[in-house]
Specification:
This protein is α+β, with helices and mostly antiparallel strands and 191 residues long. It is built from 4 helices and 6 strands, in the order ααααββββββ. It has helices spanning 2-25, 27-75, 78-97, 103-121; strands at residues 124-126, 139-146, 154-159, 162-164, 167-170, 172-178. Helix 3 (78-97) runs antiparallel to helix 4. The longest helix has 49 residues, at 27-75. 5% of the residues are buried.
């Protein structure tokens, strides 16, 4: 039996070698295998490209959300500050009109200073305007007066304007200069 087994094994081995040699020699099988490999490589490349695209989109999304969050934080107090502006105006008016410079006045001045410093730390800035040219983005003209100053120069601030992180939250109410117009004299030729 052992001779029979050896003979069978050798026949099987020879048969396998024959099939293997045939498989290696078949050009169509090689092309099929190459096609499958190229399809798999293309699919891998496509998936890699898709993954890279998704990663880039996600990074852009994160940056956009972070920027929007920073902008939200900057202007989160805008409504509250707008409500406080008339109170600040009244505070300034009271300090201006006070005749006595006693301890009470000094205390109110300190409280006002502390309030303004707190609002400045939150990004509030006063729009400086006296002596500057009129700018419609920052100023609102309420009056115009003939003056020796250059045309459209701000000569008086009627109500303070404010910026919050470089965004106008209240325009300065102003008076501007207008050039003096020469009036024709009432002579015999001008009736």
């Amino acid at each position: 039996m052992s001779k029979t087994k050896k003979k069978e094994e050798s026949e099987l081995s020879a048969e396998q070698e024959k099939h293997q040699a045939e498989a290696e020699n078949k050009p169509e099988d090689k092309e099929v295998v190459k096609e499958e490999i190229s399809k798999e490589e293309e699919k891998l490349k496509e998936l890699t490209d898709t993954l890279q695209h998704l990663q880039a989109e996600f990074e852009n999304y994160k940056k956009r959300i972070e920027k929007e969050y920073c902008e939200f934080i900057k202007c989160a107090n805008e409504d509250m500050i707008k409500v406080l502006l008339p109170i600040i105006d009244n505070f300034e008016l009271a300090l201006k009109s006070s005749r006595e410079k006693d301890d009470f006045y000094k205390g109110m001045e300190l409280i006002y200073s502390q309030l303004i410093d707190t609002l400045h730390s939150q990004g509030l800035k006063h729009i400086e305007c006296i002596g500057k040219k009129f700018n419609p983005y920052y100023h609102e003209v309420l009056l115009a007066e003939e003056s020796k100053e250059a045309d459209n120069t701000i000569i008086e601030e009627l109500q303070k304007g404010y910026l919050l992180h470089d965004k106008v939250i209240r325009h300065s109410k102003i008076k501007i200069a207008k050039k003096k117009t020469e009036r024709p004299s009432a002579g015999p030729n001008n009736k």
